[in-house]
Amino acid sequence: MAPGLKIDLSDKKSLEKYSSAFTLSDMEIFIFPELFYPLVLANIMSPIIWSWRDDQWFAGIENKSFTYKVNRIKQFIIQNYVFNLDLATWGLTTKGRELDRFRDFFDIDLLKQSNALFGYEGDKYYFDIDIRKHFGLDKFNTDVIPYWKTETVEAMTAFRYKENFSTGAGECVSLSALYAAAMFIVGRIPLEKIFLIATPLHSQNFIIEKEGLITNNRRIVTRNMWFNGTSLSEKARRALENERVTIVSHISGYIHTLYEDSTIDKDAYNHFSAKLREFLTTDLTDLIFINFLRFKSKYKSLFQYRCECSGKQRFIALEKMFEYEHSSKHNVSMETRALLVNEIEGDEFHLSPLPGKILLNDIENLFTGRKGMKLDEFRKEFAKLSGEADRSVVEEMFGDLQNFIHTDPRIPSDNKNYISNVIPEISVSQSREEIIETICSLSDRSETAELALYIYRDMKKINWIPFVKAAIERNPICFNDLNGKSVKEVYDHILTLSDESIYGAGRLAQPDEVWNFRRGDGIEKAFLLADVIVRKNPAAQITIKIDNDMVKMESDGDNYFFRSSKSLRKLIRITQKGYESSDLA
Predict the structure, then answer these.
(1) Between the N and C ends of the chain, which has fewer C-beta atoms within 10 Å?
(2) Helix (H) or strand (E) holding 51
(3) Bridge-partner residues for 569, per DSSP?
(4) What global pTM score does this model have?
(5) What is the mean pLDDT of the chain?
(6) Which CB contacts under 8 angstroms, 24+ apart, belong to 136-139?
(7) Long-range pairs, 83-86, Cβ under 8 A, ≥24
(8) CA-CA distance, 155 to 502, in Å (whole number)?
């Protein structure tokens, strides 16, 4: 173990936290929010995203505008990574198993109130979508929940080796961390401007630049896009409209809705809070009203539009105009409405006003000469023009309009006990090597830096016990697939896998990463075999001797040999009582 590292192996909470750095399940990040931003730092330490700078796609990007940068990064991510949230990639666990892990240092009742997979009922939204059916969990008993491990950039990129994938992939938390690192490395956006936002079912980023920017899975959402009423904005709005934000993570630290202590810089958090609220609020204008009608389709039927065709007035139902948007590059908004009208078939128009429908032209005239209008003022003026429209529907529409133009994000209260901590000060002007040196130099006094080394898997600088614990206890997929084979058959099959590791020198993959991507260094293959043996026989005693290129694993008198190129030397013992790690003499 490197000198100065703070991990206390005798403390259950500390051991669980540091072993979680290798599996990074949604549950683990919820319990240990201090893991979130170190994942971003681990991705920044990785050579993968730095190699993007040399891609022709990003040629000259350092001299481009913010908008250009984020769009190039977005398109690159869309082309090279897909969203993946199946149950088969990282396997399943149970509520009971996870509760046993954390009950000694976390209020389990609070967990059930705050985590969607533990019966979270904080919003009607979850009843509406039937949360377990939504994720394919309805085929299992109610105790079963997914691991949903957050992938490092190496694991995301390695999906191209997995069957039925042609590119990289990752779940929403992985994509958040990938976007944050890419914005820093390729977009040259300081980490101080990048905030990670986690809700019970989603993760996205808010970047404080210009009017603000949200990254949402593989997409980006500008403030204009948030209010444009399209299906993309509808999906982007879903989490902040329906869910409580549990964690906001930043280079300065984190704030958690359930924890009294917070490590995030208070001024940075207040700045984030103000900017996010600005992003989620807009003035009411004629354009915003049209966008709202696009967003809430049930209110389109209230309106008709009057236009002039061949010198004569014609009338058309507004929902019919919106239908034509789907096959046109033009839309109902004022700027291109006339062009859209020209594309509409003549028999869609009527010579007389449509009974019972409000004339959109009159409503839009209310905004003439104004930059914006207060909702109450608009409501009063609207009532004078609404004619025979159903009053209850109109009232419901105004309630939805209020929610459309203003989302009040349920972020953690700033009334916390703020604890100062040492954070790595890294800048966009530094090289990868300089950033790694900065993080390593702080690892003895900065938990953020130390956890970054664990997530980065730099085995020469970290204690191996958390890695071993995660490998043996939280990698179910490989055993599920290999359970029917004898240990000898498993060993022979593992030897047929590619010897290429998805991680660089001195860094190690977990067993399910080796199995999912069908490749691994000899050390990684040894842990894969050890995982299968222990799951077959929990009382098994295993010794793994790693001596540079030679890896020898012994279990119950049988020896298994592997070759390694990781240049590591270590002796690992795995028993039913626990795990031991020591340097080779």
Answers:
(1) C
(2) helix 47-52
(3) 547
(4) 0.92
(5) 91
(6) 136/86, 136/87, 137/87
(7) 83/169, 83/170, 83/171, 83/172, 83/175, 83/217, 83/218, 84/159, 84/165, 84/169, 84/170, 84/171, 85/135, 85/148, 85/171, 85/172, 86/136
(8) 7
